[in-house]
Design a protein that fits this description.
single chain, 241 residues, Arc Repressor Mutant, subunit A, 3 domains, three-stranded antiparallel beta sheet
């Protein structure tokens, strides 16, 4: 039986593997266009690599997204698939920097048709990335005891949404940093990375002083919260145009 290493000794397949590894979650036609490989030739290699377990295909609507096997978990694949789509990427970045928001607010701030927003919000709910927010007596209740309840006007027909868990926030954060070179809205992600680097520099300085345990940033979750807080100071909604 031919090993994965032997398969990748073939230059064309090695180049294709490296490209998918650096750009996970692209559609087959996107790979064909970016690598300038005819679809028939690309499909021949992809079918073979999939057969021996080097890559995995993920159905996304009518098309397939391509990933390297065992590199990303299922949740990360779902999130990255949303980040690879221009409209859902826009919505997901907006939700990352909002404790909660309504479909009406998203549609207005992002200048996106309500039907489009509704379609992607439902898909994100079905994939456990976001959830509807409980609203009681005009208060939007948080999912974490660290978060503050948000006062909202009571509108019976309006639904509010938020990122579902801290793990989802962590995944969005890491996937944005790892794949920003091949995602939409690179300028916004660059700003996000700039703020992240600033905070990391402060963390390293505190570590050298031996003050890290007395600081407010204790782990990755605190760092993400600080990045989001700083981003909201510099960039008020809407974050995308």
């Amino acid at each position: 039986m031919i090993s994965g290493r032997e398969v990748l000794n073939f230059q064309k397949r090695k180049e294709l593997y490296d490209f998918i590894n650096e750009n996970p979650g692209l559609y087959i036609r996107e790979i064909s266009r970016k690598k300038n490989i005819p679809i028939t030739t690309l499909l021949y290699h992809l079918i073979y690599l999939n057969k021996i377990g080097i890559i995995k295909e993920k159905i996304d609507g009518k098309f397939k997204r391509i990933f390297i096997s065992n590199k990303l978990g299922q949740e990360d694949k779902e999130i990255l698939s949303f980040l690879r789509n221009k409209n859902s990427c826009k919505i997901l970045i907006y939700l990352l920097f909002s404790l909660s928001c309504s479909q009406i607010e998203i549609s207005k701030d992002l200048e996106m048709p309500p039907s489009t927003v509704s379609y992607y919000l439902k898909k994100m709910i079905n994939n456990d990335i976001i959830e509807e927010v409980p609203v009681k007596n005009g208060l939007v209740h948080p999912f974490s005891y660290n978060d503050k309840a948000i006062q909202r006007k009571t509108i019976t027909s309006e639904k509010f949404y938020r990122r579902k868990t801290q793990e989802v926030i962590n995944s969005i954060y890491k996937l944005l940093l790892a794949n920003k070179h091949s995602l939409f809205y690179e300028d916004i992600i660059d700003s996000f990375i700039f703020i992240n680097k600033y905070i990391q520099k402060e963390i390293d300085a505190e570590k050298q002083k031996g003050n890290i345990n007395r600081g407010i940033i204790r782990n990755i979750n605190d760092q993400i919260d600080s990045v989001v807080d700083l981003f909201q100071v510099f960039f008020n909604p809407p974050f995308c145009s």
